[in-house]
Model the fold of this input.
Amino acid sequence: MNRSGSANPADLVVAMTGGSGAPYAVRLVRVLCRMGRTVQVSLTPSAAQVLRDEMDLEVALEPFDPAPFQEHGPGRVIYHHYQDLHAGIASGSFPTAGMVIVPCSMSTLGAIAGGITTNLITRAADVHLKERRKLILVPRETPLSLIHLQNMVRVTRAGAVVLPAMPGWYHRPRRIEDLIDFLVGRICDQLGIANALAPRWGDEFATTLDQTQWDAAADLEATHPELFEGT
Ligand SMILES: Cc1cc2nc3c(=O)[nH]c(=O)nc-3n(C[C@H](O)[C@H](O)[C@H](O)COP(=O)(O)O)c2cc1C
Done:
């Protein structure tokens, strides 16, 4: 037992830091809650800033209101202030089914790569690595410096999965939500959570175009024939 209630090995940790891509995090927590999972959530002040900038979502770190994340799902959000190193997830004795940092800023990535654990999020990530549990980091930056790349190599060697916020386009997204779900689906895949958030390669979508798409392609070819050379 600890301040987070009874330890449950099915709990998932989702942390948000100040990288761009707040909608991915919100969608992930909502999806997990809808699936009935308990999600241990923490976020940095920069993450709260990005939630405001990108989604007009006002999220206070203290007191925290889980409502925007929890929606109507049967699951629940257990919140921890990012400086609360007494939280259960700061200890390896608190079992979890894995941790995702989404978005993962290059600053937080660098701290994890360097073993620097001065807040709950970097400490929990360090715990997941030492306990050989799943740690998924979702960075977003472009272009990448050698420091970014080397930090990604270091955390990968230590056992983390670097899953950059790079949605694919082969499922022919029509809405921004399709791009978000593509990425959230890949995160769920890594967590071993069955999902149908996005079509998969090999599904029929990849080989068929509807009339609107054919028309759009024809228009594009008329205005930019160079794009179609060799096709
Ligand atoms: C609107 C906004 C977007 C940002 N986007 C990124 C980003 O995509 N990637 C990144 O590494 N940092 C980004 N930053 C910078 C980080 O928020 C900053 O480095 C911060 O210190 C990270 O702190 P944290 O890791 O404690 O959240 C962004 C900042 C703001 C305000």
